[in-house]
Design brief:
By secondary structure, this protein is α/β, with parallel strands linked by helices. Helix content is 29%, strand content 27%. It has a single domain, classed as Rossmann fold (3-Layer(aba) Sandwich), CATH 3.40.50.150. The chain has an 8-stranded mixed beta sheet.
C-alpha cells in the first residue's frame, strides 16, 4: 500500500495482518481522488477532512499528501489507531491532523460542538457492520458538520446498497470497482 500522489507520493504505508482492517486499495483510492480533484491538483488545498473508521489512515494521508489543511482521523480500535500514528510518523507528518481514538458517533458530536465544518467526509466501516453506514450517514446528515458543498463518500461492498437518501443528504454518484463501490452524497 502506498500514497498515490502529492508530496508523499510513492511512500509506503503499513497495514495490519488479517481482515480486521481492510485498507482502501491503491486503485480505488486513486479513483476516488481523481473524481474529487477532476484534474485540478489544487482542489484539495486547505480542505478539512473527516476520515471515519480510518483503519490505516490511507485516505486521510492521501488527502494530506494532496494539500488538505486538516484531517480528523477517527478510529476506535487501539491497534488501528496506533497503526495510523505509525504511518503518520513514518511520513514525518506532525501537524494538520488530529487522531481521535474513539468511536465515530461520540467524535462526530465532539467535532460538532467544536464547530468543525468538513469539506469531505469519508467513511469506511467494516463491511460486515452494515448498520454503521445508515447510523453514520444519518448522524452526519443531521449535524452541523456539513457545509453547502461538503461531499460525503461511503466505501462499501459493491453488492451492498447503503441507501440513496439520509435526511438532507442525497446520493449523486456511485462508482464500482472490483468488489468495492464508492457512494457520493451531498446536501440535496
Amino acid at each position: 500500500m502506498r500514497v498515490i500522489a502529492g508530496k508523499y507520493r510513492s511512500r509506503m504505508l503499513r497495514s495490519m495482518p488479517g481482515m480486521d482492517v481492510r485498507p482502501t486499495s491503491d486503485r480505488l483510492r486513486e479513483t476516488l481522488f481523481n473524481v474529487l480533484c477532476g484534474g485540478d491538483p489544487n482542489t484539495l488545498e486547505k480542505t478539512i477532512w473527516l476520515d471515519l473508521f480510518a483503519g490505516t489512515g490511507a485516505v486521510g494521508i492521501e488527502a494530506l499528501s494532496r494539500g488538505a489543511g486538516m484531517v480528523h482521523f477517527v478510529e476506535r480500535s487501539a491497534a488501528a489507531a496506533d497503526l495510523i500514528a505509525r504511518n503518520l510518523a513514518g511520513l514525518k507528518i506532525e501537524k494538520e491532523f488530529e487522531l481521535h481514538r474513539a468511536d465515530v458517533s461520540s467524535t462526530l458530536r465532539k467535532l460538532a460542538l467544536l464547530q468543525v465544518a468538513a469539506d469531505f467526509i469519508f467513511l469506511d466501516p467494516p463491511y460486515r457492520v452494515q448498520q454503521a453506514y445508515r447510523e453514520t450517514l444519518e448522524q452526519v446528515a443531521s449535524s452541523p458538520l456539513l457545509k453547502d458543498q461538503t461531499i460525503v463518500i461511503a466505501e462499501h461492498e459493491k453488492k451492498f446498497e447503503p441507501g440513496e437518501r439520509f435526511g438532507r443528504l442525497g446520493r449523486f454518484r456511485k462508482l464500482e470497482q472490483g468488489d468495492s463501490a464508492l457512494s457520493f452524497y451531498r446536501l440535496a
